[in-house]
Amino acid sequence: MPNMAAKIITCPSCGEEIELTDLYEGMEIECKLCGAMMLYQEKKILLLDTNEEFDIEELERVEEEEEEEEEEEEEEEEEYDLDYDEY
Ligand SMILES: [Zn+2]
User: Fold this and answer.
1) Side-chain-facing half-sphere of 57: CA atoms under 13 Å
2) What is the pLDDT of residue 80?
3) Which of 17, 18, 20, 63 is the most exposed place for a label (fewest CB within 10 A)?
4) Do the beta carbons of residue 20 and residue 29 sit within 8 Å?
5) What is the pTM of this model?
6) Ligand 1 centroid – CA 87 distance (Å)
């Protein structure tokens, strides 16, 4: 069963992955690596250190982004295939 409650977001301060087992309006999130405090409200993450707001969707780690990276790698592989045919 997929765990729908778990989300992984990227810390806007240091880039560390933060696993959220719960997410609710007004929830405070602390990055364990850099200690940045964040507040979740209205589908945005407010970084309390700098008062910057980030879209939760931008910070959220989703598998689709990884697929895009794989496509770029495939293009590089095609170039290698062309070189190989010349031999
Ligand atoms: Zn951090």
Assistant:
1) 3
2) 63
3) 63
4) yes
5) 0.64
6) 50
